[in-house]
Structure formats: structure tokens, C-alpha cells
Recover the amino acids of this structure.
């Protein structure tokens, strides 16, 4: 549950073939970790759309028959690839899978599957997820290039919090436990 006044942070990332593409939301204006003031994520959402902003269609997947996947993540530390779920900085993850399975008479694939696995999307945390850094890192990666690039949106409901000594100790334990 959110404490005090919450506000929203948003960004979008557009895919680029099979490259890892990322962005960092600068939160340094809201935080002062040395004095115990941190940003806390209460909820987070990931959305997938075309680079024009519309829904993902069969023509975006592949011109004929083929399958595509894309992973999206949010972390409290900068990354150069999709993080494993044992990475303590990972706090949101979603995967999109899509395939065209049958050619119609015109040679265009028919969408056979569109599934989003969202073990950590939407993310909602009791007490919040503390971001002990100066940025929220978001990133996406595709195993095979989509016919059309996808735009992935990230939205976070957040609040700032002055940490107690007990909460700082809990944070240190959670960040070092593996």
C-alpha cells in the first residue's frame, strides 16, 4: 500500500532489432540515499504496442510464418542485458510471445499466438520496493527481430520515504542475500 502522496514516473523504449535497448529514469531529484531519503515503487506496469502506438498485429510479428519473443524489465541498477531473476536489482519482468502459424491465400501469416507472461507485471509491493540508487533502469530485448519495431511502455506509481534504521538494515539484508 502506498504511503503518503504517490506520483507516477513513465518512459517508453522502442526495440531495435535484436539489440538490448534501455533507458534510465533519473530519480536523483527525489532521493538523498546518504540521508535515508529513497524512492519506493508501489506498483509498476509494462505495456507492449507497435512503434506507432497501436496494438501488435500479425504483420508486426512476421511477414509470413514465424515466431517472436521480447523480454522487458525494470531494475534498480543499470544493466547491459536482460537480468536473471536471481538479480536483486530486478523488480519487474514481463515476456511477450507471438507467432503467425498459417499462410492465408495472400501469403500473409495468421496470428496463431499472442501471450504475455507476467510473473512480475503488474508489480505491486506491500511496503514498496526500495530503489537505493539514483535511477530506475528499464530495458527490452528480442531474440529475433520483429517485422515492425515494438514500443514498450513502463509506468511506476512511487512515493518517497525517509528510512528508519530498521528499514535500512532490512534493505541491506535483502540486497546482499543470494
Amino acid at each position: 500500500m502506498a504511503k503518503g502522496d504517490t506520483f507516477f514516473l513513465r518512459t517508453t523504449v522502442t526495440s531495435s532489432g535484436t539489440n538490448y535497448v534501455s533507458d534510465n529514469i533519473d530519480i536523483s531529484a527525489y532521493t538523498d540515499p546518504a540521508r535515508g531519503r529513497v524512492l519506493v515503487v508501489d506498483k509498476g506496469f509494462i505495456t507492449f504496442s507497435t512503434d506507432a502506438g497501436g496494438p501488435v498485429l500479425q504483420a508486426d510479428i512476421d511477414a509470413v510464418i514465424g515466431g517472436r519473443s521480447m523480454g522487458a524489465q525494470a531494475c534498480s541498477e543499470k544493466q547491459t542485458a536482460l537480468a536473471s531473476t536471481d538479480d536483486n536489482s530486478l523488480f519487474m519482468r514481463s515476456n511477450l510471445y507471438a507467432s503467425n502459424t498459417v499462410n492465408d491465400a495472400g501469403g500473409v501469416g495468421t496470428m496463431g499466438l499472442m501471450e504475455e507472461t507476467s510473473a512480475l507485471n503488474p508489480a505491486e509491493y506491500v511496503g514498496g520496493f526500495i530503489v537505493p540508487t539514483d535511477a530506475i533502469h528499464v530495458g527490452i530485448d528480442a531474440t529475433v527481430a520483429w517485422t515492425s519495431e515494438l514500443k514498450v511502455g513502463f509506468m511506476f506509481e512511487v512515493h518517497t520515504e525517509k528510512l528508519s534504521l530498521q528499514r535500512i538494515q532490512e534493505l541491506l539484508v535483502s540486497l546482499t542475500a543470494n
About this structure: The helical segments are 58-61, 165-176. The radius of gyration is 18 Å.
